[in-house]
Amino acid sequence: DAGVTQSPTHLIKTRGQQVTLRCSPKSGHDTVSWYQQALGQGPQFIFQYYEEEERQRGNFPDRFSGHQFPNYSSELNVNALLLGDSALYLCASSPGRGVGNQPQHFGDGTRLSIL
Amino acid sequence: GDSVTQMEGPVTLSEEAFLTINCTYTATGYPSLFWYVQYPGEGLQLLLKATKADDKGSNKGFEATYRKETTSFHLEKGSVQVSDSAVYFCALIGGSQGNLIFGKGTKLSVKP
User: Fold this and answer.
1) pLDDT digits over B37-87, tens only?
2) Residue B26 needs a FRET pair 20 to 30 A away by CA distance; which of A7, A15, A92, B65 works?
3) Nearest CA to A90 among A68, A67, A112, A107?
């Protein structure tokens, strides 16, 4: 049973460019959340998708956008990249939305470096 | 808003020593509480959870008890191993929200 898978593993971009990160949730999970983890910090919530719609959003600018597909996979898009966007981007999936006692399962992340 | 505060690291212990990593939280309502572990170069793995007051989560020798009166969820292990070296994150999901709120993490290094 495959867990959460993310691609690519690493990515290098320059300031001003745009990037798309991809995530496939764990089998049986329909809710996908994205987190940004800066070096030495805890993950920060970006947004959550359920039934192909953004259901919750953290304190991130609208340069950060996303999408969820009918098969529950998801993309995170970041436009006009800034140096401060350099981080590990983590995707997490869970069964059902807003069920607080259901743990989220994380992928290994995409390491994004902005030059 | 909701928040999690963890003890500052890094924490360095000898093998077989006792481990405590403190975690306190601020939340409205009755959050669910989690400990996640992150090994170098990897994503986060759920270590244990507790969903209501006085619940004890346990896994792989680690334990944490949900203490509502002190708003705490301290992580403990009686005898650490070198393989426990990692970064540990305390987290909560509050109320009807579905997103995790994390502490800053505590890096643990266990020496042989």
Assistant:
1) 999 888 899 999 999 999 999 999 999 999 999 999 999 999 999 999 999
2) A92
3) A107
Whether A60 and chain B come into contact, CB under 8 Å, resolves to: no
Q: Does A38 touch chain B (CB under 8 A)?
A: no
Higher pLDDT, A72 or B99: A72
- Cβ atoms of residues B31 and B23 within 8 Å: no
| In contact, A48 and A31? CB cutoff 8 Å | yes
Instruction: Tell me which chain A residues have a C-beta less than 8 angstroms from the C-beta of B59.
Output: none
Q: What digits encode the pLDDT tens for the residues A18-73? A: 999 999 999 989 999 999 999 989 999 999 999 999 988 999 999 999 999 999 99
- Cβ-Cβ pairs closer than 8 A, A with B, add up to 73
How distant, in Å, are the alpha carbons of A106, B53, B66, B73 from that of B69?
Answer: 31, 9, 9, 11
